[in-house]
Amino acid sequence: MTYTTALPDDGVFLGRISSPAGGNPLVVTVRAGEIVDITSRRAPTVRDICEMEDPAAYVRQAEGRAVGRLEDIAANSFEARDTARPFLLSPVDLQAVKASGVTFVVSLLERVIEEQARGSAEKADAIRADIAGLIGDDLSKLKPGSAEAMACKEKLIARGVWSQYLEVGIGPDAEIFTKCQPMASVGFGADVGLHPISTWNNPEPEIAVIASSKGRIVGAALGNDVNLRDVEGRSALLLGKAKDNNASAALGPFIRLFGDGFSIDDVKKAKVRLKVEGEDGFALEGASSMAEISRSPEELVAAAMGPHHQYPDGIALYLGTMFVPSKDRGEQGKGFTHKIGDVVTISTEKLGNLINRVRLSPDCPPWTYGASHLMRDLAKAQLI
Predict the structure, then answer these.
(1) N or C: which end of the chain has fewer CB within 10 A?
(2) How far is the C-alpha of 226 from the C-alpha of 245, rounded, in Å?
(3) Spatial CB neighbours of 5, under 8 Å, sequence gap ≥ 6
(4) What is the pLDDT of residues 140-182, one digit of tens each?
(5) What is the pLDDT of residues 199-242, one digit of tens each?
(6) What's the mean pLDDT in 291-304?
(7) Is residue 191 packed enough to be buried (19+ CB in 10 Å), middle (13-18) or exposed (0-12)?
(8) Residues of 72-82 as b/e, b for ≥16 C-beta within 10 angstroms?
(9) Cα–Cα dist 352/12, whole Å
């Protein structure tokens, strides 16, 4: 693969790479196209930097040593990598990895369709047309919890298409779930995994915000919230099986920290683009406008953490997507599903590209490096 991070020249970026010498992952930033190791006793983890009063100022001024060109290390990050050379990892480490569901009212209907179809892709088109005929398809201005949202919900209930997704999509409470355990997310270039039982699935191109233990959002990264539509469609209680599998959470290529011309307002205005390229010649492109999100990033972080739930190492929170691919791939009316070998590119102007190849979860490298391993390696390096 010759794909690039397409990282913008401006901004303060924070991430992690493997150490060629083994041991603890290195905390790094990007300066003039070079990846610079800034791991130190003061900040041995990304979590430690995100807890600082001004993470961007610290990263900008931190002493370090160049370890290689950004694009050379990115090119070595795909699974045919040379493990004796550095490669990119997920930019978060000890943070809990959470996700928000049904945060775009436009995509709410797709979730209702999944449930009504009971995981059958063949039934989706007919159900989609029936619901759109009932309430229309322009729901972008519908505010969750509002009188208008409740009226829309009642129409759907009267038609017999009530769903748990209606409650979290247009009701007063957001859906927040665990995407994966700390240290389990994968980064730029890594393979992403599908559970072998799934035959109807899709990427979910998203922005993930990084919040400190105090709930303060300090930066953002791109994310792929890999989703099994057939599994979740069978029952919302199977959400864990649909969402949390080996290599099913991708983040990267770096966290862009707030400051120096990048803020939460840029996240809210971003256009998140998706491209899927299959080995069979199939191609799909689409985009989500964050301006159409129904709950703000601040509201979603507040729903995830606060007096009701603490995260002492902070969180990475996927914000959700409005893009659910429905372009037929194969038989007409069956919609989109992944094929092994698909290359998924998620991009925004200010966050670069997150690129991953699709495999089955058991065929992806197993997750073997957890928080206990990190602590032992940091102690061995006398960083803690």
Answers:
(1) N
(2) 9
(3) 70, 71, 74, 188, 253, 254, 352, 353
(4) 566 787 887 788 778 777 877 767 777 787 778 899 999 999 9
(5) 999 999 999 999 999 999 999 999 999 999 899 888 888 999 99
(6) 93
(7) buried
(8) ebbbbbbeebe
(9) 13
Among positive and negative, which fits the CA dihedral 209, 94, 3, 366?
negative
**pLDDT range class, residue 95, cuts 50, 70, 90:** very high
- Residue 370 has which token pair? 């957890």
